[in-house]
Description:
This protein is mostly helical.
Amino acid sequence: MSKRDDLITLYAKELKEKAGVTADMDLLTKVTIGCGPSIYNNDASTVSGTDDAELATVKNNYLIKKLGLKDSPKLDEAIAEVIEQLGKSNRHKYRACFYYLLCVKFDKASVYNK
Length: 114
């Protein structure tokens, strides 16, 4: 298995254990690939639930630009829900898991079918 495959397996396990979600492995793989090389960098591979600048980046770069959503309070609410879902005290909120949950929440899997 490649390092990426190992990480995808880790992410599926994290989603199951932390969020109680059984991942759609095809979608999780596409979301992980969409994260690019950030998944291999310890700092960039995770999302800080307490860093407002980073959460704004998630909102602008992922939800608005990647998923094509309109800016609204619902986006901030969804980010807060995902933080809660993965565990506020969980220091390893993997970016791929975070994005996967947001993608599912907004039913935007079609973005990855292009």
